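Honest question from a wet-lab person: if I give you the sequences of every part of a complex, can you actually get the arrangement of the whole thing, not just the pieces? Trying it with mine:
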Amino acid sequence: MRMQLRTLVRALWLALAGLFAAPTRGALLPEDRVDLMYHYYNGGGTRVDGPALLVRKGIGERVSAYASYFVDNVSCASIDVVTTASPFKEKRQEYGGGVDYLYRNSTVGLSVQRSNEPDYVSSTVGATVAHEVFDGLTTISLGYNQSRAEVGKAHTDFSDHANRYQYKLGVSQVVTKSLLMNLNYETILEDGYLQSPYRSARLLGLSVPEVYPRTRDSHAVAFGMIQGLGSSDGQLRSSGYLRYRYFWDTWSIRAQTVELGYGTRLDERWLVEPRLRHYKQSAASFYADDFTTQMVFMARDRELSDFSNNALGVKASYLLFNNRFRLSRAALNFDYEFIRYHYNNFTDVRTGQLYEYKANVFQVFLSGWF
Amino acid sequence: MKQRGTLVVVAAICLGGCATGPWVKPYERGWLADPLMSVSRDPLSDKYLQHVHDVREGARGATVAEGGGCGCN
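Yes, you can. This is the full assembly:
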């Protein structure tokens, strides 16, 4: 069944690649820009912060290359950690890079990424193809990522691995001069060690090792739309967007995500974007808060439980200047998101109550366009 | 026979669609090029936020950005 699915996905991918043989003209490469960020997350006993950098620059008229660097300084005393282990600190570093090549109405991209943690190292390679048809009103995109992770456990000889194969298909459509819609599908096939070596399940109140299946196939379909809103002088002053995603996988998780946002220019310099996000999911078939009998697969990862969260966020961008210091423009951006998580079947063993927590997510970043 | 007729009609509609010009002309696309109409206006910021959500939720995929790591925090 799994092989059939993989064969079907590959056949679909190849068949759609045939669309790209059509005549082409006029696509654009991404903008040349640099972003320097500081990010901060604090919630549920976990604090993560660090810098991030993204530089993208065109090379000639047909090639655009980018490099990125991302750091997570983690200080973790989450409920899993304080109830089963000791708080810890660690650092994750992520390096990424890629090249996009433009040929008429098609863009072909190649990317690499490496993420290093003391007990988890993953490497990813990816390829994307995007093609515009109907005079640029429709864009079809295909993507494939493959990654391999080496999983370890601190202060032990434990070692295992996990493989991930991602297939993406997207269609973006200009509907009117102020309405864009897009539809995306992605399937992720995973095999190997897909759990955490630190977490444990509960069996009649006692801690026992978690055991997950060694394969997982997941699917997600997302729909989005952006509507531009003009002022009386015919200028675009604001826009609103709506996104919806439905997710399902072979672990019996079903999830829905709804996002709603609105962006508006307050004046020549300020752009403000408030947003809302709602997420809910059902539990994996092998999840239990406290098992009453030994099972083949047993998990008590709260990310596999029945839960929901609501987020309220706002981004504010301030235009610093135009045409100075070899930059066409530069902006200072602030982003804040408040998230509240509510678990329907995960007990805080310290209190005996269902677990819930709040998180604050903050970013400040400087953007410059060449 | 009925199926073949339906196929011909569908094919005619599709090909007809290819033959017509763009319903949003190039000179009408000014708004579409504005950052306010971008699906991912700030890629680094979007990637970070997506990572924050991905590592704490069971669902993933079909989003505008993606991240890495074990997500075990």
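Two things worth pointing out. The first strand of chain A starts at residue 33 and ends at 43. Helices of chain A lie at 2-17, 79-84.
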